[in-house]
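Fig. S4 source data, part A: sequence.
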Amino acid sequence: MLPDKYVITIGRSFGSGGRALGKLIADKLGIGFYDKELLVKAAEKAGYDIEFFKNADERAPRIMGGIIPFSMGFYPMSWIGDTSSAGGDTVYKAQCSFIHELAETEPCVIVGRSADYVLRDLPDVVNIFIHAPLDECARRIVGRDECKTMEEAKAIATRTNKLRANFYNFYTDKRWGDAQSYDLTFDSSLLPLEQIADIVIDYVRRRLDK
């Protein structure tokens, strides 16, 4: 039997199907699913404009020349100058607080937002990373009608992955996509997402079975 409260976090390269996999896992287990919905709830809770949260989503603060003390992650300080950049740090802290509240109240799947690192000190957390070759990611992106050509899709994937890596590496003491940072990693081009979801669920049940 699974515990009353547990979390499955999913890191993912853009176009690898991480969000779709997370939704599959959540639906199969009958638990909560949080991706961008997490931002909306965190924004409402913190009293921030939702568009501001979306703009700061999975983006490391810009380096502007000032110094703001920062106690989380690899860097002892963040070199951030203006209030808009500092706001990125505030947004991240608000997300961290909300992620912890979720973990303490319900079983759920959380996609992105360095949730694996945020919840690193809690028991019953399983961390997954999904990736795929760039061509496969580009085909998935085009198939979702997010752009029209493979070249454009590859450019979007490369740019988004850089933003996600910068965000993760800035706020944590780990490296985005490094297998040592996760419990399981999958190349989503090798198996259907349905089968990967079943493998993850089997692992979760074997590991967290009380």
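Fig. S4 source data, part B ends here. Helices lie at 18-29, 36-46, 50-56, 83-105, 115-118, 134-143, 150-171, 193-208.
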